[in-house]
Amino acid sequence: MQYITIEREYGSGGTKIAQALAARCEIPCYGQEILEKASEKLGVSPEQIREYEEKATNSLLYSMYMVSQVQRGNWDMVSKEGKVFAEEQRAILEFAKQGSAVFIGHCASEALREYRDVVKVYIHADADTKRERIGTDYGIPEREIGAVERKNNRRRASYYLANTQKKWEDFRNYDVVLDSSRLGIERCVTILSGIMR
After folding, report:
1. Which of 57, 131, 156, 184 has the largest CB neighbor count within 10 A?
2. pLDDT tens per residue across span 69-96
């Protein structure tokens, strides 16, 4: 296997796992870099890209319409959200051409759907582990943790659905599903690095 794509619940430690996995396998890890490359191509800030991602609709008809416009080359008819997704997908493909890598979020498995050597991973954790990690790692005040977690997971789920027509939290969309609260970060990295080897 040459590529691992990771979708993860907010606070599950998925980003830490991805970065540690990449370091252990001595390959690049792309997450923020995808967003930065797309923002550069579109001439907007990464913050604006995040706003467009949040606005992505979960309407199947809308998504089908956007995909058809992109395929026809009708860029004037594509929304800003649609253009963001298209540029993120292009960035992922450009990074993939450079060799093995770990990709975090951005529907990377969709961009690499024609590749045979991709492992699609979903990381989740129990509520207590996520709350603790969100408070400790991200410095979110206790009273805001629930709202911040729900907002981020809702954004990820909507973006995934809008652009893949699949449910983000449906385990059947992935090859490997790991519970980081039961396994811990290090064991998750060990399991995934074993797959890469």
Report:
1. 156
2. 545 555 454 456 667 788 889 999 999 9
37-46's contacts with Cβ under 8 Å and 24+ in sequence apart are: 37/87, 37/91, 37/94, 37/95, 38/84, 38/87, 38/88, 38/90, 38/91, 41/87, 41/90, 41/91, 42/83, 42/84, 42/87
Domain total of the chain: 1
**Does residue 55 lie in a domain region?**
yes
Whole-model pTM: value is 0.85
Choice between 76 and 123, residue whose per-residue pLDDT is larger: 123
| Per-residue model confidence (pLDDT) at position 77 | 44
Instruction: Please choose, from the candidates 124, 152, 125, the residue with its C-alpha nearest in 3D space to the C-alpha of residue 138.
Output: 152
What's the domain range around 175? 3-181
Whether 194 is covered by a domain: the verdict is: no
Query: At a CB cut-off of 8 Å and minimum separation 6, what does 88 contact?
Result: 34, 35, 38, 106, 107, 111
26: pLDDT confidence band, cut at 50, 70 and 90? very high
